[in-house]
Amino acid sequence: QVQLVESGGGLVQAGGSLRLSCAASGRAFSNFDISWFRQAPGKEREFVAGITWRDRMTFYADSVKGRFTISREGAKTTTFLQMNSLTPEDTAVYYCAGDGPPKYGLRNPTAMDYWGKGTLVTVSS
User: Fold this and answer.
1) Model confidence at 31, in pLDDT bands (50, 70, 90)?
2) Using 50, 70 and 90 to split pLDDT, how confident is the model at 25?
3) N or C: which end of the chain has fewer CB within 10 A?
4) Quick one: which of 14, 44, 24, 26 has its CA closest to 97?
5) How far apart are CA 93 and CA 88, in angstroms?
């Protein structure tokens, strides 16, 4: 019942920046935590960043700490992922996912109730 749509992916040179957006909509929209995951070709889907509904606590994978920032607008319908200092290792399809009502498994893809279809980020060297 909840729809998540990612946008903002594209091609960027190493060292550059992109900002991804995750827009949520739907009649059954409710409180939920939002996470970003990514999946590179031939690799498992991995957690990137997450933000909680209640206190806007943020969490990051070690590989992106200090480079990526997750945030949520006041209305909590759009979640952003600001990605700086990108490297070719960041190349992947990035997925927005929601856990609602939160089960406090923000890092676990199996805890997610809603998924977007992904947006491709390609970082060239």
Assistant:
1) confident
2) confident
3) C
4) 24
5) 13
